[in-house]
Amino acid sequence: MVVCRMTLMVCKKKRSKIEIEKKTKWWKLKKEECCEEFRQKLRQALGGQVVLPDDWETTAEVIRETGRKVLGVSSGRRKEDKETWWWNEEVQDSIQRKRLAKKKWDMDRTEENRQEYKELQRRVKREVSKAKQKAYDELYTRLDTKEGEKDLYRLARQRDRDGKDVQQVRIIKDRDGRVLTSEESVQRRWKEYFEELMNEENEREKRLERVNSVEQKVDKIIKDEVRKALKRMKSGKAVGPDDIPVEVWKCLGEAAVEFLASLFNRVLESERMPEEWRRSVLVPIFKNKGDVQSWSNYRGIKLMSHTMKLWERVVEARLRKVVEICEQQYGFMPRKSTTDAIFALRILMEKYRDGQRELHCVFVDLEKVYNRVPREELWYCMRKSGVAENESREQVEENLERWRFALERRGMEVSRSKTEYMCVNEREGSGTVRLQGEEVKKVQEFKYSGSTVQSNGECGKEF
């Protein structure tokens, strides 16, 4: 018989690492000292100038670079959703000593090593209990603040997510119910699902009456409009792909207002917005009901540029001055919250109950309403309400189609090969027009009754 003592080193199963893009710590701008340092460093990066550069690309890059240097970036490690927010350095040191004592006892199982390990084990339990009690006491005192509410809600969400695959959707089912496990197949399925969801329209009667567009000069955006929109924007929201939150513009104050007003006016005049604004991050969020692996139980949340949202706020404020919204609309309306509608319903229920009368209620839910709104109906409603439009190629196409229909109805035919399109004072990338889906030939000059008309508005070819 052979007796021996062996120590086997068993390799732990490696957990798959989830790469997370490093983010700038913009939340530090809530501190006035960090905000002031950011303003000073940004001014130095601009060569001592107080005014921001005119073009978006230069300004955005300088802001991002300054933010990374002044505020720092996150580690990129995955944040574990465990209820260890009470953790402190004392507990960590005690647990480390306990682990070393355990290894020592495993190597040499003497009574002295065993007692040392047991004593450290009891000490860790006491320190964990003290740390938890201290953290809970601090939480209770902060419940009346915004930070305290966030802590409480975070704990509730962590407990609710336990056992659900909602931190990152690693597996999903396809149309036939088969489980997809590879990253490529999961991403491909999400792409198919959201493409169908965003481009689907319900069947409807396309009988929209002809409404003439309101053609008038659109006033320039003034700084006061930007200030009001900036004030309405909430802080602490997830940033889009451009990594510039609204906190940056709030920190920069009047310099930001002046830059944004100039930027928005250039977008209004050129009818083109920065390419960064077109990009977004689509995140599937579990609805907390149904099968976690079923794609239909997720809703998509788009993380977009905060600056583009600010531009949308300015446009929305102008639309609200023209468009009349019905009195029954609650939510997204000033001084008309959904809680007012709930209160009115409860009062009505009490009145009917006191009078011993029946009250019949029907709660109508529209299926995927935001994804299936017919865009034509929106344009129709805005034109009907008298919203002013800038001159656009779409109007040219509409007029061209009306002429084609009127002529062909009377036996005439528009020549596709000889019909030409010219844009005077063309902005970069303004495109062309279409006739029944076919592009009309685009020219820089056109000979009209012996006179050459040029797209630049000059008459040089006449001489």
List keywords for this structure.
single chain; 463 residues; mainly alpha; two-stranded antiparallel sheet; two-stranded parallel ribbon; 14 helices; 46% helix; 8% strand; Reverse transcriptase domain-containing protein
Plain-language structure description:
- The chain has 463 residues and is mainly alpha-helical.
- Among the domains are: 46 residues, no CATH class; 73 residues, no CATH class; 70 residues, no CATH class.
- Helix content is 46%, strand content 8%.
- The strands form six sheets. The chain has a two-stranded antiparallel ribbon. A two-stranded parallel sheet has the order 3-6.
- A hairpin with a 5-residue loop joins β1 and β2.
- It is extended and about 110 Å long.
- Keywords: Coiled coil.
- This is Reverse transcriptase domain-containing protein.
Care to give the gist of this entry?
The chain is mostly helical and 463 residues long.
Write the layout of secondary structure elements.
Layout: H1 32-45, H2 56-71, H3 89-107, H4 111-141, H5 146-161, E1 172-173, E2 179-180, H6 183-198, E3 214-215, H7 223-232, H8 246-252, H9 254-270, H10 275-278, E4 281-286, E5 298-303, H11 306-322, H12 338-354, H13 375-384, E6 388-389, H14 393-409, E7 420-421, E8 434-435, E9 438-439, E10 441-442, E11 445-448, E12 451-454
Parallel strand pairs: 3-6, 7-10
Antiparallel strand pairs: 1-2, 4-5, 8-9, 11-12
